[in-house]
Write a structure and sequence with these properties.
Number of strands: 16
CATH superfamily of the largest domain: Glycerate kinase, domain 2
Number of helices: 11
CATH architecture of the largest domain: Alpha-Beta Complex
Distance between the termini: 16 Å
Largest sheet: 6 strands, mixed
Strand order of the largest sheet: 3-4-5-6-10-11
Shape: elongated
Strand content: 15-25%
CATH topology of the largest domain: Glycerate kinase, domain 2
Order of helices and strands: EHEHEEEHEHEEEEHHHEHHEEHEEEH
Structural class: alpha/beta
CATH class of the largest domain: Alpha Beta
Amino acid sequence: MKVVIACDSYKGCMTSREVARRIEEGIRQVDDAVITKSYVIGDGGEGTVEAFHETCQGKKQPVSTTDAYGKKIMSEYTIIDDGKTAVIEVANIIGLNMHEREKRAPFFGSSFGVGTVMLDAVANGCQKIIIGLGGSATNDGGMGLLQALGCRFYDSSHKYLSPQAMNLDKVRYIDFNRLNRLEGIELIAACDVKNHLLGENGATFVFGKQKGFFLNQIRKIDLGMENFRNQVRRYLKVDIDSFEGGGAAGGIGAVLIGILQARMIPGIELLLSFSDMEEQVRDCDLVITGEGQSDRQTMFGKVPVGILKVAERHNKPCICISGALGIGYQELYDLGFIGIYSIADRAMTFQQALENAPEKLTAATYGVMKTVMYYMNRINGNR
């Protein structure tokens, strides 16, 4: 028997590699003769650099930049495709999980550090940049990224404004004259988010709470974002709210697509285009995928559905084992999963769930594989 394992990370708990290792352990406890093939997976969020690095045997490139709140940090990206392509992720530059929940300050967040890393990739000779947009802590409309590329922002008195969410409503003048548009560089935004920049389905309303905004602040920030959109449109004749995916990473998506002419491709589809997974699934018996939490949102371009599509192309059964199951997870069965499981086996606090997840995942896999092996043996005539 051969099993292909391709799971997203359990965010804040286990990396994609660690998840795969725990699933492999559970499988071996049932039958150590089972052949496993595991993949490190990222969909544009946390772990995207590592996923591309392993899949493409890339070269890690350290880089000095700034985090969401302007602190100097060392980050890294990977260079693949014989030095032609850089893969960066906002999650290891301005990532939400880089800061404890009580210390998040979204009004002061800036995407400046992302632009710094992009410029470093260009300086290292890369002709294509893939930017994973998941997991950001910022909601500045991409102001910081634009400033890193040469833009400057001013209020009604022509006073300089720092590129932070708290200044979105104050922008009246934008100096685009020194903007480095990265001409000749192919930009690809790796992301599964389809939200536009503004409104109740936009960046602030959908993702603002998890970044630290209070409910009574979200409307104000969205109005500030609308002002920023209006000023950009006045100068460039481009409506950055008109693009699907513009709400990704607090508006970085809108800047990449609308101003820098990036293409947006779902992260899992992009990664799989560099992988041999199709070949491995073709001759396997079972595919196992999973993520931190599976719910209705999983249907919209998340890793498990991307892996399911590969399995279905080769008529292979696919099981999803996730850290938790949320509202609407039952709808995933309609997509073709033969089983959807949570590793939680009793009531516990969130912190306990994080601490116990590795052991719980191995135990859950053991139970799932016991059932799978029982029915496979019956099908094959073995009792």
